[in-house]
Every structure is written in structure tokens, then in C-alpha cells.
Write a structure and sequence with these properties.
Layout lengths: L2 H15 L9 H23 L5 H27 L11 H12 L2 H29 L3 H23 L4
Helix pairs in contact: 2-3, 2-4, 2-5, 3-6, 4-5, 5-6
């Protein structure tokens, strides 16, 4: 095999080994997922606030209520400005199970479940916001997603600093 053929063959093999790039997320899909994410954050915060005695958990949950109400407003304003009128958000089956698990937990165990769930959902939320901010198709909605990214990153930093309960 000549040198050029070897290089071409190596490039084909390398490309075949790479994961396929995901198709860009539609704006409607982003709006539904972002809305569900914010809704879950607010509902889970309300559950944990109804009984936590941990000041750090309570402060974080209060922040989730405020920040996720604000991100919902930001995304909905950008969507409306761009001619989108999304349906009210609904929780996914996974989010419903997580909320049920949180409601079933009691006392300090509820706080631990909440923090564990928050770590997971914030990782997912960061990926969602970053993906749309980079590859979304509607400029105003992309800008909203980009504004949300550092807020989610701040939440992740706070969650990482919380002790495992």
C-alpha cells in the first residue's frame, strides 16, 4: 500500500471509530426539555423545603426556586420573541420518579437524595444549555441558553462543595 493510500485508510478507520455527531436539537425539543428541567428544579426545591433542617440545603433550594423561575422567564421571552409558543412544561417519567423518591424520603435522608439528584440533573441541564447555545437554530433562544450556562455552572460548583450526606 502506498503512503497516500495508508494515510487515506487510516483516516477512514479513525472516522469510523468516532461517535456519530448527534443531529442538532430542534428548538421545540430544547424548549420542552428546558421547561421540564426548570419545572423539576422548582418542584423538587419545594419538596425539600417542606422539612429540611439543613440551612445549606434550604438556602440552595431557595436559590433553585429563584434561579429556575428566572431561567424559565428568560427562555420563554426569547421563544416568544422568535415566534414560538411552547406548551406548558411537563415532567418526564424519570423526573416524576425522582420527585416521588424525594417525597418518599424523610429527614436527613431527603436532604441527601435531593443533593444527589441535583448533582445529576444539573450535569444534564448544563449539557442541554451548552448544546443549544452552540448548535441551536434560533438566535434569541441560543442567546438565552448561553446566558443560562454560567448560572448552571455556579449551581454545580455549589453542589460540589456540599458534603455528601
Amino acid at each position: 500500500m502506498s503512503g497516500l493510500k495508508r494515510v487515506a485508510f487510516a483516516a477512514v478507520v479513525a472516522m469510523a471509530a468516532m461517535p456519530a455527531l448527534a443531529a442538532p436539537m430542534s428548538t421545540a425539543e430544547y424548549l420542552a426539555k428546558a421547561g421540564a428541567s426548570d419545572l423539576f428544579e422548582r418542584e423538587s426545591a419545594e419538596v425539600v423545603l417542606d422539612g429540611t433542617k439543613n440551612k445549606e440545603v434550604g438556602t440552595f433550594a431557595q436559590m433553585m426556586l429563584a434561579d429556575h423561575a428566572q431561567s424559565t422567564q428568560l427562555v420563554m421571552q426569547a421563544a416568544a420573541q422568535s415566534g414560538f409558543h411552547p406548551l406548558p412544561p411537563s415532567l418526564s417519567a424519570k423526573q416524576l420518579r425522582m420527585l416521588a423518591d424525594l417525597k418518599d424520603a424523610k429527614g436527613e435522608h431527603r436532604d441527601a437524595v435531593y443533593i444527589e439528584q441535583q448533582r445529576d440533573v444539573h450535569d444534564e441541564a448544563l449539557k442541554l444549555q451548552q448544546d443549544y447555545a452552540l448548535g441551536g437554530g434560533v438566535p434569541a433562544v441560543k442567546a438565552a441558553a448561553a446566558r443560562i450556562v454560567p448560572v448552571v455552572q455556579q449551581h454545580i460548583t455549589l453542589l460540589q462543595a456540599m458534603p455528601v450526606m
